[in-house]
Prior knowledge:
Family: Belongs to the NMT1/THI5 family.
Mean pLDDT: 93
Order of helices and strands: HEHHEHEHEEEHEHEHEEHHHHH
CATH superfamily of the largest domain: Periplasmic binding protein-like II
Subunit structure: Homodimer.
Keywords: Iron, Metal-binding, Pyridoxal phosphate, Signal, Thiamine biosynthesis, Transferase
Distance between the termini: 47 Å
Oligomer: single chain
GO molecular function, one term: transferase activity
Helix content: 40-55%
Largest sheet: 5 strands, mixed
Strand content: 5-15%
Protein name: Thiamine pyrimidine synthase
Number of domains: 2
CATH class of the largest domain: Alpha Beta
Number of strands: 10
Low-confidence stretches: 1-21
CATH architecture of the largest domain: 3-Layer(aba) Sandwich
Amino acid sequence: MEGTTMRMILSAIGLTLAGQAIAAEPVTVALDWTPNTNHVGLYVAEAQGYYDDAGLDVTILPYSDTSAGTLVANGVAGFGVTGPIELITQRSAGADVKGVYAIVQHETGRLVFNADRDDIQSPKDLDGMIFAGFGGIWNQIVSDMIKNDGGKGEFETVTLGTSSYEALANGQVDFTLDIETWEGVAAELEGLEQRAFRYADYGVPDQQTTMLVSSDDYLDANPETARAFLAATLKGFQFAADHPDEAADILIEANPSVLTNADLVHGSMKTLVDGHYLVAEDGTIGTIDAEKFDKLGAYLMQSGTLIDENGDTLSEKPDLSAYFTNDSLPE
């Protein structure tokens, strides 16, 4: 009788565990662009089974024209990849978005121009030149760099998006902005000689350029799921930092139709690791830097970029500490 009872108990436990395995918690993540090395930790965590081990069924949504922050704020995705500028701008305008993980630890963006331009020695020399831009806050950033270097901050802008890099290479424009860890690597592979100015060297606050965001609604309703997801994701990014070539191969295998240039992906991973972008020099990974975040928010406030939910320019600096949290990260 005791043996029969024990077998029944063990059978019930087995069925319960099987049920738990089948009923993995669903999590959706929205990307900010087509898959690239900024997303590598997500794909590594998926391929290595970190999400499975955490009891999660993670779906990485295809990139769309709707921003990841908007998808998160509207409950379409539990998490999204975005930048702190977009996060601060959207939250100030009333969107329910909240930073929860810093993917990149310091600024990857820079102002670039062809290396043979002897007439460009510092940002003030860009006055009156042609900038291939992207719209939004970026014109303000360029203008501020020039002014902080002693120039007027006046230049001609043509908005070309990703065509900016071809226009720069062909000499149709004088300068543009790029991401060192992607377009910068691509330029090197193509043999294009360029020079660059970093934003922070000319008065623009350093920022953790790529983040994972969630929402207060989601975090309040799913605290354990959020912690499990971020712990597994951090593990994925740590693996990528420790094994960049293997991580690059995992990313390519997951996105073969998009990532067709293996040298670019591997080169980008090397730059992310060598530049201490995924893991900072002091070993920090994932943690959102409160000081950097606050300085960036103050800069956006001073530039007149931030508006409220009614479309009015903010007259007072918001409480930026409410815009992000590190509480869901593993200790």
